[in-house]
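[Q] Does anyone have a clean structure-token version of this?
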Amino acid sequence: MLFKSRERQVHEHICQEIENRLARTGAPGEIRYFLLERWSYLLAGIYFSRGDQNPDWEAGWHTVNALLWSLMPKCGQEETEQLLRLLPTLLGRLYDGCDAMNLAAGERDELFTQLAMLHAAVTRDGLQAADNAAGPTTQLGRDADLEFTEAELASLGNEVVPVESVQPVQETATLDGLKVGDGIRLHVEGREKALLLQWISPMGGMFLFADQEGYDAVSLTRARLAEKLARGEATLGV
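[A] Here you go.
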């Protein structure tokens, strides 16, 4: 019983650490579930089998930080290219972790499908923010170095959104009330787009908007939409 109690304490501590990082980054609900209900147990297993000085323990936390950083809005070309460099390493680590946890293939595939959508939205928004007169670059060159070092992964843990900028409680309630067919006005480069909500991801972490004809689609993560609302760059209701 004492050992089980110790296991519980360690797992609770790990979950609290993850909660703290989730609060600073405003990650989507799908990722919150995966980290708290799946990855936390992998970290606990590493702790009890190898200790907190083992490289696998550090790598597990670096992966958490890198995943959360990858879903945060990117400010232009440089950060977006850093994200594109990170993805092969990050996705490889997540896949290995899912394998180590014996995660069911269906749940694993659903996770990676969600990540593909989330990363596509973050990448597109980051590229649109670029100041390159020739237009944004949508992919890295063939000779680009796609290897991410441990030092680079560790550094991502320090690049988080300040607590003050996390969406307020009333904004969360507003987003929870959104339903398909609701309207939004997006303010983009001095002009306004009137769009309708077409789709919400199962756990409410992703929103897809489009005009009445189904064109001019815009996908936004929950954190990104909350940020736009807070800045006055979007208004709910058409």
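[Q] Thanks! Anything notable?
[A] The radius of gyration is 19 Å.
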